[in-house]
Structure formats: structure tokens, C-alpha cells
Amino acid sequence: MTDSISHIAPRDKAEILAQALPYIRKFHGKTMVIKYGGNAMTDPALQADFAEDVVLLKLVGINPVVVHGGGPQIETALNRLGKKGEFIQGMRVTDAETMEVVEWVLAGEVQQDIVGLIHQAGGKAVGLTGRDGGLIRAKKLKMVDNKDPSVEYDVGQVGDIVAIDPSVVKALQDDAFIPVISPIGFGEENESYNINADVVASKLATVLQAEKLVLLTNTPGVLDKAGNLLTDLTAREIDGLFADGTISGGMLPKISGALDAAKAGVNAVHIIDGRVPHSMLLEILTDQAYGTMIRSH
Ligand SMILES: Nc1ncnc2c1ncn2[C@@H]1O[C@H](COP(=O)(O)OP(=O)(O)O)[C@@H](O)[C@H]1O
Ligand SMILES: CC(=O)N[C@@H](CCC(=O)OP(=O)(O)O)C(=O)O
């Protein structure tokens, strides 16, 4: 555990703990989908903090469901093979060889690391891909240009979610397990699809009717062109930020997914800084507002 609280006076610590009580009561039995971005998991101490936070939520009766990313980890593995990742509108162009790498890095490495850390922190995690329990059915994504829909891109084995069957997630939750999900879908011929983890987290939050969707990333939230944090964004403001290019790269699928989830009835959708120790716990269990909140209107 990183000792980021030793400088806080005991009375202040007690106050922070007491502040959590109404939130624990409010969220008891509720589902929180937490997207753990690859960029937010690069520091081992922060990873351990994250695992502890997830276990704490479970112990106080909240149901965390973790969807993890791993973009930088996939990039490192591709580089070792002499390959370099290419992205179009935030999606990795995925040929057959890249798909193999994506599958072994996400399901074999990143997911198992998170499962192990949650166990070390005293929780019971189960790793899943979209194949397990028929969780994520997908088909090849037809990608069109954000600004000119007549332009199409072939991004290879990138998946478009056809359906999510949440029964395996619900069964695990009921049995005190914490699901840790890799964003890999499967198609009609049992072929694998690489799906952006933000897209999976957002869709899963909608299907599970989650209370909250929290997306942990490597920025303080959504920033404007001058680098200022935008604490609150509505659908109309987001359209403007897409149009003027303020939102780009990996932030595109994150915001689109977040907005879809907000429109579909997920009560609260937040993009927060995963590099700040315990940011997720502070967001969920204290009065403090962090990062950017996405609103449907
Ligand atoms: N307006 C914006 N505000 C903040 N980050 C942005 C913005 N537009 C693009 N980005 C980029 O999006 C990145 C986060 O997305 P991504 O790299 O996919 O992270 P993750 O691995 O957490 O999903 C940021 O690090 C930043 O480079
Ligand atoms: C289609 C697509 O882009 N898939 C992503 C899956 C991992 C991911 O989303 O990781 P982050 O959350 O860390 O960005 C990729 O290949 O990088």
C-alpha cells in the first residue's frame, strides 16, 4: 500500500471515514462498473491500491465489476515482435497476428495480474473473457469517419458488440466473487474480436443497469484545448468538443461509450485520474467530486 495518508491528522482521517457511511448505505447491493485503463495501471504500487479499493467496495456490500484495458501493454508486446500499433479513431487496427498478441496480453497477462492482486488484497476475483459464459458476442466493426460518414476504414478484427449476456457476471456477483473482464468478444464462427475496453465497460454498465460507471485513465479527466479540466459535460457540449477536435485518440471511444451509458440510464458516469492513489474509492465513497462527469442532457 502506498502510504499517501500518513500526513493527514487523525481527526481528519476519522472524518473521511465517517463521510463514507451515507454512500455505503446508498450503494449497498448496487453494481459499479469500473474500467481500469492500461495507462492507469503502469505503477505496481497504484495497482495494489486499486485492488485494495475493489476489495473494500465488495466488503461493504457494493458489487464492483472490473473491465480492464491494456493498450500500452499490447504495444510493448507488439514492439518485441518488431510490430508497431496503428490506431484509427482510437481503435487499434487488428490483423490476425495482432489479435493473437491482444488475446495473450489481455487474457493471459493483464487480467491474471489483476486477479492475483485482488486475491492478495483479500478478495476473490474471477477472470473472464467475452467467451466465458457467452458474455460478449461481437461482429466485425464497420468504421466510418467521424466527420465524413461516406469514408470507411478497415480496422481488421476489431469487434462491434452484438449482445452481452450478463448471466455469468450476475452469478459470480451473487457468489461473492469479483468479475475481472478482458475486452475480447467472439463471433458466429467462434472467431475472436478485439474490442476497446471503454466500449465494453460502457455497454456492460448499461446491460447490468449499473449505478455508476467509473473510467480510470491517465489524465485528470477531459481537458479543454487550454488544458483546463472540464468537470461536467452534457451531450451537446460533447458534440462541440468532437467537432472542434478537442477530443481525440483514446478519448473518442471513452466519451462515446460514457455518453451512451448515461443516455441508457446509468445514474453516474465519471472519467477520473487513475494515477491518483485511491481516486476510485474517493469518487465513490466521499463528497469530493473528481474528474469529469458525463451527463445525458
Ligand atoms: N480532450 C482530452 N482530454 C484528455 N485526454 C485526451 C483528450 N483528447 C485526447 N486525449 C487523450 O486520451 C488519452 C486517454 O485515452 P487512452 O490512451 O485510451 O487511455 P486508457 O488506456 O485509460 O483508456 C489521454 O492520455 C490523452 O492523450
Ligand atoms: C480495438 C482496440 O483498440 N482495443 C484495445 C483493447 C485494449 C484497451 O482498450 O486498452 P486501454 O483501455 O488501455 O486503451 C487495444 O487493442 O488497445
UniProtKB/TrEMBL annotation:
Instruction: Site Transition state stabilizer: list residues.
Output: 35, 254
Which SUPFAM superfamilies does this chain map to?
Answer: Carbamate kinase-like
Enumerate the InterPro entries for this protein. Answer: AceGlu_kinase-like_sf (IPR036393), AcgluKinase_fam (IPR004662), ArgB (IPR037528), Asp/Glu/Uridylate_kinase (IPR001048), Glu/AcGlu_kinase (IPR001057), NAGK-C (IPR041727)
Instruction: Tell me which GO cellular component terms the UniProt record holds.
Output: cytoplasm
Q: In which pathway does it act?
A: Amino-acid biosynthesis; L-arginine biosynthesis; N(2)-acetyl-L-ornithine from L-glutamate: step 2/4
The Gene Ontology terms for molecular function here are: acetylglutamate kinase activity; ATP binding
Keywords, in A-Z order: Amino-acid biosynthesis, Arginine biosynthesis, ATP-binding, Cytoplasm, Kinase, Nucleotide-binding, Transferase
Q: Which residues bind substrate?
A: 70-71, 92, 194
Which reaction does this chain catalyze? Answer: N-acetyl-L-glutamate + ATP = N-acetyl-L-glutamyl 5-phosphate + ADP
HAMAP family named in the record: ArgB
Q: What does this protein do?
A: Catalyzes the ATP-dependent phosphorylation of N-acetyl-L-glutamate.
Tell me which residues make up the Aspartate/glutamate/uridylate kinase domain.
30-273
Which BP terms in the Gene Ontology apply to this protein? L-arginine biosynthetic process via ornithine
Name listed for the protein in its UniProt record: Acetylglutamate kinase
Its Enzyme Commission number(s) read 2.7.2.8
Q: Which residues cross the membrane?
A: none
Organism this protein belongs to? Comamonas terrigena
